[in-house]
């Protein structure tokens, strides 16, 4: 039911007269030879899948000889992915944001290089976005993103409670965003995943910087109560050969010019992060673990 799979695996190839290459399992080491042999020209997938392909290509010393377009989709895109796509494939990473409920925005070929790090692009035809806030909008104080358009579904049906909710006008996406300066939007995360109170920590910027640390293989920044009605940031890290110390991570971020209140005050190490079928980190599970110490994955 995910809209990305329907669009890019079925509708787009059919409309372009192209062939879709699909694998029924996700094992990057096994999938990469299959994709190389298929001579793919377009590669789409969320950040976790793109990183998996890049790592497998490097380990197997393979490359995609005819690849021309690489596109990813998520609320936020790590800077490291944008850099590695450009270095490995020689093309700029394109990104899109969308919802199964409908509507989408996407970057264009005329956007500046590296634009995927600061924007999910402009809405498609027939789609409108509205940023709502009762304060001046900034990265520290983003707005709530509302959308409407011809592709928005007419209603949603609760999976567990069976409740039907009609969508008659603007739809609250649950995302936090700011204008990107080119008629599009820069997403700063989900409202439920925000860290901070009046001012929020730019979670994607911090995670992107931490991914550049030599001892960090994967990372998620998650909020936890400070015991005084506020909230602090915890870095949940999957380490490489050597595990980093919290001080190392804080020094790394400070060296990139980040202010004190962006820095994590807690570090937890895991062998893997919990992800859903779309490759997105289940931060709700991580928050629960930080609260009660019980892993649910």
From TrEMBL:
Spell out the Pfam families in the cross-references: AMP-binding, AMP-binding_C
Q: Which region is the signal sequence?
A: 1-18
Question: What keywords is this UniProt entry annotated with?
Answer: Signal
Domain AMP-binding enzyme C-terminal as annotated: residue spans: 206-280
Record SUPFAM superfamilies:
Acetyl-CoA synthetase-like
Domain (AMP-dependent synthetase/ligase): give its ranges: 2-151
Family statement drawn from the similarity comment of this UniProt entry? Belongs to the ATP-dependent AMP-binding enzyme family.
Name assigned to this protein? AMP-binding protein
């Amino acid at each position: 039911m995910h809209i990305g799979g329907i669009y890019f695996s079925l509708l787009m190839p059919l409309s372009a007269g192209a062939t879709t290459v699909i694998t029924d399992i996700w094992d990057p080491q096994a999938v990469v030879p299959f994709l190389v042999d298929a001579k793919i020209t377009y590669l789409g997938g969320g950040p976790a899948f793109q990183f998996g392909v890049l790592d497998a290509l490097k380990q197997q010393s393979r490359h995609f000889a005819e690849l021309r377009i690489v596109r990813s989709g998520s609320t936020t895109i790590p800077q490291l992915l944008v850099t590695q796509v450009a270095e490995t494939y020689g093309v700029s990473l394109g990104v899109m944001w969308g919802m199964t409920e409908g509507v989408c925005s996407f970057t264009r070929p005329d956007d500046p290089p590296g634009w995927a790090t600061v924007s999910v692009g402009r809405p498609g035809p027939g789609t409108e976005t509205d940023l709502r806030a009762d304060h001046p909008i900034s990265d520290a104080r983003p707005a709530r993103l509302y959308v409407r358009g011809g592709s928005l579904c007419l209603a949603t049906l609760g999976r567990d409670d069976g409740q039907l909710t009609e969508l008659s006008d603007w739809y609250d996406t649950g995302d936090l965003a700011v204008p990107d300066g080119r008629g599009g939007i820069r997403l700063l995360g989900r409202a439920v995943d925000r860290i901070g109170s009046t001012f929020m920590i730019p979670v994607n910027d911090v995670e992107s910087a931490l991914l550049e640390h030599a001892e960090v293989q994967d990372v998620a920044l998650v909020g936890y109560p400070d015991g005084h009605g506020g909230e602090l940031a915890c870095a949940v890290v999957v380490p490489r050969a050597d595990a980093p110390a919290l001080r190392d991570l804080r020094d790394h971020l400070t060296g990139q010019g980040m202010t004190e209140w962006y820095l994590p005050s807690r570090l937890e190490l895991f062998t893997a992060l919990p992800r859903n079928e779309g490759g997105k980190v289940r931060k709700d599970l991580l928050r629960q673990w930080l609260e009660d110490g019980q892993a649910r994955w």
